Amino acid sequence: xxxxxxLEAETEIxxxxxxxxxxxxxxxxxxxxxxxxKIHKIEVHEGDWExxxxxxxxxxxxxxxxKSIRETVDxxxxxxxxxxxxxxxxxxLSEYKSYKFSVQAIxxxxxxxxxxxxxxxxxxxxxxxxxxxxxxxxxxxxxxxxRLLNA
Length: 151
Prior knowledge:
The chain is of the alpha+beta class. The chain has 3 helices and 7 strands; from the N terminus they run E-H-H-E-E-E-E-E-E-H. The chain has a 7-stranded antiparallel β-sheet. Strand 3 and strand 4 form a beta hairpin. The model has no long low-confidence stretch (mean pLDDT about 95).
């Protein structure tokens, strides 16, 4: 059984790629408003909302449990509307020695295709792949779509 892995998932939404990317690029503080049952709060721990290297603290619910992470922006690709986050600490690191997640918004018609990628290294044998985190990301994507369409 491999200890390193990569999961990918994508979903189409009826919001422009630029608008969706902007939420994760510089307006993450709006995510709890769109997805309050999943994301309880996001706060800047160091830096600001949009600079590379800024650190944010997320409080969220997954699998019926309240958890938190601190993440930093690892890379930003404005042209391809992609951003990669690296988890610095939190409960997720009790199962995974390292965890990065990326989101990319790819223009498609009047909306976009949102692609999520998780790259991780398991802390040991028997640790499941983080499908629940990919599912959480897809559900948050749909919540943001609903919020932006009704704004």
